[in-house]
Amino acid sequence: MTHSTDSPAAATRPRHSNLSVAALAALYQGEKTDASYVFNTAMVMMGIAVAYLVGAIPFVDKLSYGPIGAPSATVPHAWAYLLLLPIPLWLVVAFHSLITLNAMSHGISVTLIETELFGITGMEARGVPRDMIGSAAGDKIMDITRSALVHRVVTFVVYGGVGVFVIGFTGYTWSSAQQVIARETARGSGNLAVVALAIYAILLLLVLASWWVGLRMINHGRRAADERNALSGNEDR
Q1: Do 98 and 210 contact (CB within 8 A), yes or no?
Q2: Cα distance between residue 49 and residue 91, in whole Å
Q3: Are the CB atoms for 207 and 93 separated by under 8 Å?
Q4: What's the rounded Cα separation, in Å, for the pair 195 and 201?
Q5: Please, which residues have CB within 8 angstroms of residue 83's CB and are 6 or more apart in sequence?
Q6: Contact (CB, 8 A) for 88 and 50
Q7: Using an 8 Å Cβ cutoff, are 184 and 81 in contact?
Q8: Where residue 94 falls among pLDDT bands split at 50, 70, 90?
Q9: pLDDT by residue (tens digit) across 50-59?
Q10: Residues 70, 92 contacting (CB under 8 angstroms)
């Protein structure tokens, strides 16, 4: 009868078999694929929103004043079309917040798996910094909680600029609808314009709340992931 010479601590220490490494690699590949797909979808939606905005601005004038300067009465219920014109933009902006936050959440999962694989490779023992490998390298540019000031400013300019354009376009179409209503003296139209303005204000609050709550959840997840990675690093030593 033989007795194991391994200590209890050694018995409980995780051992990285070829199977576990292959499983981690498969998880990593799946997460990277999902994150890339979600991020690309978000960028496509952003492009669609910008294209719609550019194409819809001339359309506002046609609805407001009619084709080639004709009175707006040539377009029945032009004020209603004007009030509805920003809706596709708001739908894209709202869904864009969800899909971008989803991509950022996938990024946390990718970071955890990368850190585990990084520890297996032994690169840390050879003096390779963790933040130079994998998604951590890109986070120094794209992650507003870790990027330099100039990159944070550019990020806010990009997303804030899109928000300003959407809000400005909504105000422009609403003002144009009000002008059409004043010329046509459509009964009850003024009340509908107020309702439309209230709906857009609610959509704005919902989008802002989506970003606020989502970013707080992601920051909490990143802190937990950093603590887990630090604990794992201490255990490896």
Answers
A1: yes
A2: 9
A3: yes
A4: 10
A5: 173, 174, 177, 192, 193, 196
A6: no
A7: no
A8: very high
A9: 888 888 888 7
A10: no
What's the pLDDT at 215? 87
Under DSSP, the state recorded for 185 is T
- Of residues 165 and 75, the one with the higher pLDDT is 165
Report the candidate in 15, 224, 235 with the shortest Cα–Cα distance to residue 111.
Answer: 224
**Rounded to whole angstroms, what are the CA distances from 168 to 93, 159, 164?**
14, 14, 6
What are the domain boundaries of the chain? 16-236
Q: What local confidence, expressed as pLDDT, does residue 8 receive?
A: 45
Count of C-beta atoms within a 10 Å radius of residue 56: 17
pTM: 0.73
pLDDT digit string (tens) for 3-32? 444 444 444 444 556 667 777 778 778 777
Cα–Cα distance measured from residue 71 to residue 73, given in angstroms and rounded to the nearest whole number:
5
Neighbour-count burial of 226, counting CB atoms closer than 10 A to its CB (0-12 exposed, 13-18 middle, 19+ buried): middle
- The pair of three-digit structure tokens given for residue 151, joined into one six-digit string: 């990159």
Closest by Cα among 175, 169, 204, 171 to 93: 204
Task: Tell me how far the alpha carbon of residue 47 is from its chain's centroid.
Answer: 14
Q: Would you call 15 exposed, middle or buried from its count of C-beta atoms within 10 A (0-12, 13-18, 19+)?
A: exposed
Euclidean distance between CA atoms 190 and 197, whole angstroms: 11
